[in-house]
Structure prediction request, 191 residues.
Amino acid sequence: MYLVNCLLASTIIFVGCGYPDSENVSQKTVPRKTDTIALTKSGHQNDSFFNRVYFSKADAEKILGEKAFLSDSSSIVKRDTLEYKSAFTAFSKDQKSDRPGVIYFMIEQYSRDKSAKDAYHSIKAANEQHEGVKTLQGLGDEAYFHSDGQNFYFILVRKGSRMFRIKVNKITSHTSLNEFNLVSKKITEIL
Prediction:
C-alpha cells in the first residue's frame, strides 16, 4: 500500500509540473536543448532509482549514429508500476531508407520482482516464435534481443523488479548495433 501511495504522489508531482490532467499522464514534447531526463519521485524508499538518468540524448545519438532530439516522453502510474517512456528522433532522414532514425526507451519499476518477471515472460512469449529472437546471458536476471536484421533492434532486460526495453525502428545506414549493445549493458549495470 505504501508503494501505491508513493506512486500516486508522483502522479500529483507530474501533474503539478504542467502535465495534462488525465488518467494516463502524458506529455508530448518538442525538441529540447537538454540531453538528459531524470525520473523524479519523492517519498519512495529507493529514491536513487527515480532520480537517475538511465537513457540520455547522448545514448540515443550514439546508437542512431547522428544528432537527435527528444520527440516524446511520458510517465504513467499503472496500479503498482511506475512507467517512463521516451523517444528520440534523428534530425535528418537517412539517404538509404528515406526515414529519420527513431529510438524508443521504456523503463518500469514494479512493486515486486514477481510482477516484473510475469511481465517479462508475457512479452517474450508473445515474440519468441518470430525469427531473430535470441536469449541473452549475463545481462540482468533475464534478457532477450530481437531483430529482423533490416528494420529494427529490440532488447528487453529485467533485473529484480525493474525492466527496460529499447527499440530502434527503423534501422538506418547510421545505426550502430555495437552502441545499442553497449548502452543496454550500461543501463543494466545501473538498474
About this structure: The chain has a mean pLDDT of 79. The first helix runs from residue 2 to 16. Helices lie at 2-16, 47-51, 57-64, 113-127, 177-190. The chain is about 30% helix and 35% strand.
